[in-house]
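Thread: "does anyone have the structure for this chain?"

Original post by V.I.:
We have the sequence but no experimental structure in hand. Need at least a predicted one for the grant figures.
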Amino acid sequence: MKLEKKLIRVDLSGRALPLYVAANVEELVGDPADPDQVPCWAEAWPAARGLAAYFLQGPRLDGTSVLELGAGVGLPGVACGLQGSNVTFSDFQPLALSLCEANARLHRLPRYRLLLADWRRYRCRERFDLVLASDIAYEPRLLPFLKAVLLEAIKPGGSIYFSHPGRPVTFSFIQELHAAAAFHEERFLIPVSVPEDPLRSSYQIHIHRLQRHPDT
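Reply from O.Q.:
Generated one for you, tokens below.
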């Protein structure tokens, strides 16, 4: 399938960033009863905007290795790339990776790659300094697989970043990670504006930074 895309501008705490998203999300829906066929990957969700704003407001990340899981259009990964990271965009949907590549090229990221991978059959053995999980910890049937991927993908001393709009299931999942490994956690709230949304134009996005103990 050829993906039609459109260029939008996202407001990231006062910084406008151009971004490619799917031109018509409704056309991409397969069987609505099958979560794998619902194109959640095709849009720039508020949690992704919040995490991108967080990184763009922060220090440089030169030379760090970053894995964005469930990358979708790749907005947080692009933000890390603009701050100097080597970014791996990962998704199980090839069309999502095509959007990630379009956005990486749009922003002229010098170091990025694409990883087609399903958490249920994850085979990447590389470990990363930062792992990004933007609003992906909400589907109960997938959480055991996501937990295994996160614990395998993060380096000792590295950090996992979660962002979400206040989902109870995500809070609970983060507590499960604490029980599985030694993490130091920091929490932040990032205000996000979505002016093109006719139903809700503002959010408070929760960001959790879980830094893994260097000896685990």
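V.I.: this helps a lot. The helical segments are 46-57, 75-82, 94-106, 143-153, 168-180.
O.Q.: and The domain at 5-27+37-212 is CATH 3.40.50.150 (Rossmann fold).
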